[in-house]
Amino acid sequence: MLLIYQIGIRLYYLIILMASPFSRRALQWISGRRENKPLLSLRTADKRGRTLWMHVSSLGEFEQGRPVIERWKAEFPKDKIMLSFYSPSGFNVRKNYPLADLVFYLPLDTPKNVNRLLDHLQPDIFILVKYDFWPNLLRALHQRKIPSYLISARFRRDQYIFKWWGSAFLRQLRVFRWIFVQDEASEKLLKSFDFGRVIVAGDTRVDAVMTQGRRAEGQGGNKEGQKAEGKRHKVIIGGSTWPEEERMLANLWKSEEFRKFKENKEYKEGENSWRLVIAPHDISEGHLAAIEALFGADCVRFSRCNQPLMESLMKNPVILIDSIGLLSSLYAWADIAIIGGGFGKGIHNTLEPAAFGLPVVFGPEWTKFREAESLIRIGAAFSVTDQQSFSSTIIRLCSDPVFRVESGVLALKYMESQTGSSDLIIKCLLEKW
User: Fold this and answer.
1) Which CATH superfamily, name and number, covers 223-415?
2) Residue 306 and residue 12: Cα distance in Å, rounded?
3) Gap between the Cα atoms of 176 and 197, Å rounded
4) CATH number of 16-203+419-432: 1.10.340.30, 3.90.1150.10, 3.40.50.11720, 3.30.365.10?
5) Tens-place pLDDT, residues 272-326
6) Is residue 381 pLDDT above 90, yes or no?
7) Could you tell me if 151 and 65 are in contact, meaning their C-beta atoms sit under 8 angstroms apart?
8) Domain coordinates of the chain in residue numbers?
9) What is the pTM of this model?
């Protein structure tokens, strides 16, 4: 099986190479790895302090690894941090991450590339986040006796490594000294395959988003503080939305049933009318124009407002976020969160709105996400399947402030109960290294 892999990894490279003239993502993948050589040559081996190498697949995995890096660097400021990405989408956003001494693309997983990289980095410890299992890399780490750890992992029985044809890849996981999983189900599954060194540590993303939430509150994003200021609009935010959620939002927004919440003529809660913020997953010009067409004159792009969000919402009922990097901080100003992706391959990040104490609404494709399951179970999140259930859920949250606030409180309490994963991982690493 591994012989087939060695052939396949080279064919994989050729396919990406041939696709690069036609695919921007493939071109970034190729050009980024070509730029690795001069980037890596800038660093010579420096053994003052230890060298920790963390590898992540993309931006989501980076956010899971980030709190571990931050806590490690705070504890051992002289240690060096090497951070590698597989995906251009992660590398391009975090290539200037200040806590890393070097940020680079993981080379193609061939024995020659891997050994050359290890010769250069000379890591004292290797940490892999979630899953991005490259057999040649894992084998080389094991051969060199470099302590290796897997963190924030979550396993399901239907994953390829648990199939008969994936058994060779499952064996590669035995190179990890310890595997830190997110939940008991993952631990049970691994132990059924005779993995003994498994620790349930939770999801490190919780630490990251809770820290971010506290920072936002300290910078004026505290919702209770806003309420104390008096009159302000209530805000629904659509985070990482796709066309299906945007269409449902537009239908709701234009409906006669929702009119009273927009105009506040019959609404008795003693607050101003409801406003809507949409932060789409795709911010290409064509997609932004399509959203504007759905909402008509009510919708204004944020880049054209020239005012902070709440001031912009005083004049414009619908604000369309047309840049990246703002969404996580915008939740601090919201009262209800609608998360995109649930009518496609799977929902986007629900932890960020939950960290701000928001009730969360999303489509039916959530079953692969542990946190979504937990939030639904405790009454902090709501899965919808069509326009009718979408509209009725949002209207209930808008019209019943007690229900809305209680749902948000449950979300925040869940998040608070899940913190501490990063501290546990670092404590275990230091004890077991």
Assistant:
1) Glycogen Phosphorylase B; (3.40.50.2000)
2) 46
3) 9
4) 3.40.50.11720
5) 689 999 999 999 999 999 999 999 999 999 999 988 887 888 788 999 999 887 8
6) yes
7) yes
8) 16-203+419-432, 223-415
9) 0.78
